[in-house]
Amino acid sequence: MAFCHPKRGRGLFAYMTASKRASKNNPKEGKRPELLAPAGGMEPFFAALEAGADAIYVSPRILNARAYGKNFSINQIADLTETARAKGIKLFVALNSLMKESEIGECLALLAQLEEMAVDGVIVQDLGVAKMARDHFPAIRLHASTLMTIHNSMGVEACKRFGFSRVVLARELTLGEIRQIAQKAQIETEVFVHGAMCFSISGLCRFSSFHGGKSSTRGRCVQPCRRLYHWAGNKGTFFSMDDLCALDFIPALSSAKVTSFKIEGRLKPARYVYHVVRAYRMVMDSGKKDLEKNLDKAHRELQKAMGRPLTSGFFKNENPRNIISPTRTANTGIFLAKVTRCQNGLLSLSKPIMLKKGDRIRVVMKEKDQQFSTRIQRACEGSSIKIDDLKIPEGFSRTFEGLLLFKTDESKEDGPKWSSLKLQRFKRKDDLEKRKRLAKKIEKGLVGQKTREHHKGSVKVYAFLPDLSMTKSLYKNRLLESIILPLNRKNLSFALRLKPRDEIRRKIVWHLPAVSFEKETATIKGLLEQAKRSGFRRFQISNLWHFALPLKGATLMSSYEFNLINSQSMAFMHDLGVRTPQFSVETDLDNLALSMSHFGKKGAITVYGHIPLFTSRVRHRIYSAKTPVKSQRGESFFWKKEKGFGLLYQASPLSFMDKAHKLAEFGIETWILDLRFRPGKRRKNTRIPNSIGGLKSVFRGKQMNLSSKLH
Question: Taking the model in full, what pTM does it have?
């Protein structure tokens, strides 16, 4: 299959040459695994160096998946690069947020300057960012972020073809799956070994965005998974994951030929980074004789980091029981005590505590789902603490009984020191300014002028159905262009019984699943080949791994799982032969209008449907599909079990039908009605009207960010 549009010679050359460059160094030949540490500020950076990290990843102040952190200016990143280089340490930059159209100029400037300072790698999620880097800054080594949801060996193969040097694998993989992928990989593989975990498979969470426009894929997640919910008569943090700890799996991961062991934590303080890196360094440097002894030491070292309770994640099996703790609080820290009584400005505690001046504590009111952090201004020892010492913020519960206290950090006066380390200065600051001017010229060529004026064109309506049982009422629908169906044995067998000239058969587009773990890819490939042999030529792709399938001769469209949110990511898809790329459902109206005017071609969008807020491999025994999940605010959600997955849906559907005329003007000519999941009374077959006006009256719902703003 051609991986670039034949008329786009420059793009094809960029992808091919980048791929050849990436494959020159075999990542598995005689190299020990790399220990990769996070740094969200200057202190954590030096702490990681002092503790023995082989590489450190940092973030600029824009376009990163930890937007709420302090992060670094471009000049600071230049100095950090020089400092790391002087000490023989690699520095990677996480440019791993989705990019809105208005941010293209800033992104180009960053890429230009990062290429100039020769950082060791740039971690990206957005396919538009990847395209701009490959087309204009080919010296940059690209790492595919875990937010790209690369979870099988075919996904790694596709990334290699697109010029990536490294893939950060999905966190939902078992040790066996990681071993299979890493041993087949022709580029470097990176695996998370420690830190916070998301309930949803990375890149497929839309919960935070659906309720307020603060997207997890743009680093602004408000962590709805950490909150309290009511479910089947129980109350708990049902979606709050414990922190990952892979200390015991380091020898196995090393033998699996994984290139890099990654620690999560760009929002963590320096002491957390120091103790976690030190613990993993102990184990990675151990010989067979002293491994058991050093593992014990390392686990004791981890306790000083004061994180959440630890879990082995998915390493042991694909449906672990110990990965969530619904009855516990979702915060980090070492539990100190519970407030039992409040009298005369003094809080009585369930047990004695000892705090030094400057220690940081977290105060939690579990019942009301509230918490805050503060540093203690004076030493405290005993079974009580003054209310004034907690500095309770305005709006926090004034019901003090039941408050929980956790220690999250030590006083800055205690613990290890790293302030003696000095920052090396990057000497070519003038060149960074020149590169910024170069980026301006590139930006003008990409988006300086609108390539297509808005116009009102015809629209094509597609219905995305779970199976063919709903099709009888759709035979004579004049408005319905096509039917999208999940590609599975049941649906394909039913479709093959239709006559070749049957109108419904000719309307079918087969949807390829976004997530198929290693053992399932052969099945999907077999079904795809069978469909093609039977005359089907239209397919909807939803993950990069599909580009490693035999799709030659197929007519392709993409799904919203690709998170295409700017003109460059849409162009990336179009260059690869995707005739109808689909825009992200997270977009706001201004971003959609600007992106489509710069893209200059037609596109698609899902205009209606119950969109999964979580897509998770966690399938805990207490989860019930029979009763809705209720938030503290009274919002309702529905849990659905699928083979190997659990999905959480909002009770009210998404609908863009109120902005239908705008979508057509922008060049969104393909509208998708996603009818796969319809809770409650909506499960009955739905009549699809024969007119746009009829669609507006039937398919109502929440506009997500379209009528507000994507942050």
Answer: 0.91
